[in-house]
TrEMBL record:
CDD domains: NAT_SF
Domain N-acetyltransferase: start-end pairs: 79-239
Gene Ontology molecular function: acyltransferase activity, transferring groups other than amino-acyl groups
Protein name: N-acetyltransferase domain-containing protein
Transmembrane feature ranges: 49-69, 81-100
Organism listed in the record: Gomphillus americanus
Family annotation (InterPro entries): Acyl_CoA_acyltransferase (IPR016181), GNAT_dom (IPR000182)
UniProtKB keywords: Membrane, Transmembrane, Transmembrane helix
Highest classification ranks of the organism: Eukaryota, Fungi, Dikarya, Ascomycota, Pezizomycotina
Domain of life: Eukaryota
Length: 241
């Protein structure tokens, strides 16, 4: 009698791996994910501006101003009013697009020249790159330090521990390289640090353009700190024996 072995529920599920890119294709995919960070910031900021109560009030106020001039005869002027309302809406959308244009310009600057000699760790699900972390090893004052310039995953893969896995991988690399510490790079070197229209944050108590970005950065720093405390405390404990 032959007893058939039950198939594993995970049979056929691709492996999730964290490693340095092994070829140009993986490096390109990882770099594209980094550039997508700016595209996502642009999209989120656009939606925040468009669907904000202040923008709606601005549109309504402008419609109110032109109303007496384009809607004098109810029998014939309805099309004129609709066209005017749509024209104002399109003008506001064009203004929003102009305001968030710097994100697009920054995204286009993420290329091989931007990467330079920096290194990368990617997360792969099977053959698909779903996360990327770019870091720089920097020597200063006889100390070696790791600076994280970019850290991201595909939007659909977030809140699944993949971002933490990427950070844990680079923390381990920093430890192996003998770094004295690891931290996120300064704003001028780090992707995702740009905050457009920050001077308007909190305006009238309803305009929170960068609030979500700030919260995500706080969470990222907390995650990195936890990993550093865990790994570096272990390193120091062993070193002190």
């Amino acid at each position: 009698m032959v007893i058939e072995k039950e198939a594993s529920p995970l049979e056929g599920v691709p492996d999730l791996t964290f490693s340095k890119p092994h070829n140009t294709e993986d490096r390109t995919a990882g770099l594209k994910l980094v550039a997508d960070v700016l595209s996502q910031q642009r999209s989120i900021t656009s939606k925040t501006l468009i669907y904000n109560p202040i923008t709606v009030l601005l549109w309504a106020a402008l419609v109110g101003l032109i109303y007496p001039f384009v809607y004098r005869n109810p029998a014939t002027d309805k099309p004129n009013l609709v066209i005017a309302m749509m024209g104002i809406l399109m003008s506001i959308l064009a203004g929003v697009r102009y305001l968030v244009r710097p994100y697009q310009d920054l995204g286009e600057s993420i290329n091989w020249e931007w990467l330079g000699e920096d290194e990368m760790v990617i997360a792969k699900f099977g053959d698909t790159v779903i996360g990327s972390c770019v870091y720089r090893l920097q020597d200063s004052s006889n100390k070696k330090e790791m600076l994280i310039r970019a850290w991201t995953t595909r939007p659909r893969e977030r809140r699944k521990g993949i971002g933490r896995g990427l950070l844990e991988s680079v923390v381990n690399i920093a430890k192996q390289k003998g770094c004295s510490g690891i931290d996120f790079a300064p704003d001028e070197l780090r992707v995702g640090s740009t905050r457009l229209l920050s001077q308007l944050d909190g305006f009238a108590g309803v305009l929170h353009i960068n609030k979500g970005f700030a919260q995500e950065e706080t969470k990222a720093r907390a995650t990195l700190k936890n990993l550093v405390d865990e790994h570096w405390s272990e390193k120091r404990t062993k070193g002190s024996r």
